[in-house]
Amino acid sequence: MASAQGRAKRLGAWLTHPAAKPVLFALALLPFAWLVYGAVANKLGANPAEYLIRSTGDWTLRFLCITLAVTPLRVITATPALARMRRMLGLFVYFYVVLHLLCYSWFDMGLDFEDIAKDIAKRPFILVGFSAFVLLTPMAATSFNRAIRALGAQRWQLLHRLIYLIAGLGILHFFWMRAGKNNFGEVAVYAAIIAAFLGWRLFKYVARKQAARHASGRPQSPARG
Ligand code: HEM
Q1: For the chain: N or C, fewer Cβ within 10 A?
Q2: Phi-psi domain of 182 (left: phi exceeds 0; alpha: psi -120 through 50; beta: other)
């Protein structure tokens, strides 16, 4: 018990260190650096365009899972300092989805915007991915302190709950893409991770509601005097 507390304390101290954010930023850029290096050094296999589209899709989903993990980890390990990293991780979801969209628009569609619009309307799995991107945009745009103040905490929180819908759309997009190949192993792993985080949130929500109901139903102590 004491060692768990000690570990949480050490993690908290590390996360509040001035170097923590720059280190995390550099780590989150590593997949991008690897893709740039791979493209320049011609190390992306026989079909580099497909490799780039798929890798950026994978990293979008991975950062989505990492971002969703922050709150459960913060609560379970009693490490409030983890919250400092959530905004940056969320913005990396947006960074990788923009790269994913750019790779698709450029390598698959030759930056022909009329063709892109037609393809989005024609292929359901692209439409689902695009919807997730559209929903992520207001979240990324309102992740700054001034936007939080302008929206008000409650509206901001409501908007940012969209993350679960976005994660669901991301999984559906991935599932649909793999459906043609009957290859669902990886999709199932990501779906299970996201379902576990959502389940944890729902459990906490129900527990909070029940605690509030019990507190309000408790008999009042007799008035003094
Ligand atoms: C939150 C949003 C999104 C997520 C999480 C996501 C995730 C993914 C994932 C995991 C893959 C499969 C990678 C693999 O096979 O290893 C993928 C593939 C793909 N995605 Fe997305 N994506 C998103 C948005 C989009 C958008 C906005 C577009 C384009 C408008 C798009 C177009 C594609 C295409 C064309 C493929 C490759 C299909 C193929 O190679 O057959 N995605 N995406």
Answers
A1: C
A2: left
